[in-house]
UniProtKB/TrEMBL annotation:
Keywords: Oxidoreductase
Species of the source: Scytonema millei VB511283
Record-given protein name: SDR family NAD(P)-dependent oxidoreductase
Matches recorded under Pfam families: adh_short (PF00106)
UniProt-recorded Gene Ontology molecular function terms: oxidoreductase activity
Superkingdom of origin organism: Bacteria
The keyword Oxidoreductase is annotated on this UniProt entry: yes
Family from the record: Belongs to the short-chain dehydrogenases/reductases (SDR) family.
Lineage: Bacteria, Bacillati, Cyanobacteriota, Cyanophyceae, Nostocales
Keyword set includes Cell division: no
Signal peptide segment: none
Length: 285
């Protein structure tokens, strides 16, 4: 059985839905968990301090160890404060799971600066500043696990939805962040992966316990990525309805980047047009 005894985990957005499912499972396996959730509403505004406290209390009543944080992750300083509070309380940080997110719709034509800024803040800036704050202690420990969150709505064109440009950009950005952090963390024992989850939560306007696509069906994948049993870095773990598949972009054979892509040679746009079916041969990701 995978155990996380003495490990310390920060899980953002863990007062409800997927994050709460992650927190409960990690705590059951022995992790000391920081429940971070500012308690914002579906529009990304408002503030309910009880959201994080309630889950932390439930975990403690069940015999686990959890504390609550209600910081808004809207600045580098606040992200650093969350990590510093964790280190002051537990004197280590082993696991960082950035689950916090925000789903809302505006078409590109209607997109407003404040709407885009809110998406950038939670999906790009927050995981970057949290990782920056966590890296020094993880390097010192020569151990760390970071799990970011992406989305099939961003990765696969066939699942894209109109109005989700800001959301999709942020979720794709976390893949780029994952790849770079995986390189920077490799020699220090820090592994970085991403989860691409599907679950019925309040973002789907689901209030009662769903019969399928339950958050608890995704949580085992996050537990694995957050554990010492995980030995790989730079993977996207797709998780839905109790099923998992790990994927990552990989280069074709015989490529000598960037001089030889082992691809179709062409010197004119007209030639590309003629040979497009050959150039754009479907390759499953």
């Amino acid at each position: 059985m995978i155990r996380l005894d003495e490990r310390v985990a920060i899980i953002t957005g863990s007062g409800r839905g997927l994050g709460a499912a992650y927190a409960r499972l990690l705590a059951e396996r022995g992790a000391r968990v920081v429940i971070h959730d500012a308690g914002v509403n579906k529009e990304g505004t408002g503030f309910d301090p009880n959201v994080a406290v309630d889950i932390a209390n439930q975990i403690c009543v069940s015999g686990g160890v959890a504390i609550a944080s209600r910081l808004l992750l809207d600045s580098r300083d606040n992200c650093r404060s969350l990590v510093e509070m964790t280190l002051e309380k537990f004197d280590r940080l082993d696991i960082l799971i950035h689950n916090a997110g925000w789903v809302a719709y505006q078409t590109v034509q209607d997109l407003k600066p404040d709407f885009l800024e809110r998406a950038i803040n939670i999906n790009i800036e927050a995981p970057t500043w949290l990782s920056q704050a966590a890296f020094p202690r993880m390097k010192q420990q020569h151990y760390g696990r970071i799990v970011l969150t992406t989305s099939d709505r961003a990765i696969y064109q066939q699942y894209a939805l109109g109005g989700l440009a800001a959301y999709a950009m942020g979720k794709m950005a976390q893949i780029g962040l994952m790849n770079v952090l995986a390189v920077e963390g490799k020699e220090h024992g820090i592994l970085v992966n991403a989860i691409s989850p599907v679950a019925k939560t309040r973002m789907w306007n689901v209030q009662d316990e769903p019969e399928d696509l339950r958050p608890e069906q995704v949580a085992p994948g996050v537990l694995y990525l957050a554990s010492g049993e995980c030995r790989e870095s730079g993977f996207i773990l797709r998780a839905s309805n109790g099923q998992f598949t790990a994927v990552r972009w990989s280069e074709r054979d015989n490529v000598n980047y960037p001089f030889n892509l082992a691809a179709v040679e062409s010197s004119t746009a007209e030639d590309l047009a003629t040979r497009w079916q050959e150039i754009a041969a479907d390759v499953a990701f």
